[in-house]
Design a protein that fits this description.
The protein is about 0% helix and about 40% strand. The chain is mainly beta and about 130 residues long.
């Protein structure tokens, strides 16, 4: 009978029940399931349409709804899309963290080029 390797054995395995498909994933931001893989995170979307035609350089605050179920630690802008003005570029950061809740976060979005109108932003809301 072969000798069983000790805890310092060069061969280690990850059991299939520990990780989905034996890998960590981010999930799909376009899926109906908002889970962000095996992470403590959820995908959230915000429609940035204002109807006012904001000029470049405008900074606006948005309330982004999420379903993490607890107060998040971090919110990150991951992608955005504007089919009407494809050259749209935005930047975002979480603000007023003391007002974040289990259902929403506050973000400040800066319009760098293009238009807010018709822009759909996707955020990754992460817990502790």
């Amino acid at each position: 009978m072969p000798k069983k390797g000790g805890w310092r054995s060069p061969t280690r395995s990850v059991h299939g029940s520990d990780l989905e498909n034996k890998a960590l994933g981010a999930g799909s931001p376009t899926s109906a399931d908002k889970a962000a893989g095996k992470q403590n995170a959820r995908w959230a979307k915000a429609n940035l349409t204002t109807g006012a035609g904001a000029p470049v350089g405008t900074v606006s605050e948005y309330d982004v709804a999420h379903d993490l179920g607890k107060v998040p630690a971090v919110v990150t802008l991951k992608e955005w899309e504007n089919s009407a003005v494809p050259q749209t570029t935005i930047a975002a950061r979480g603000i007023r963290r003391e007002n974040w809740s289990a259902t929403h976060v506050h973000v400040e979005i800066t319009l760098l080029s293009g238009s807010f109108d018709g822009t759909l932003a996707t955020f990754l809301v992460e817990g502790r």
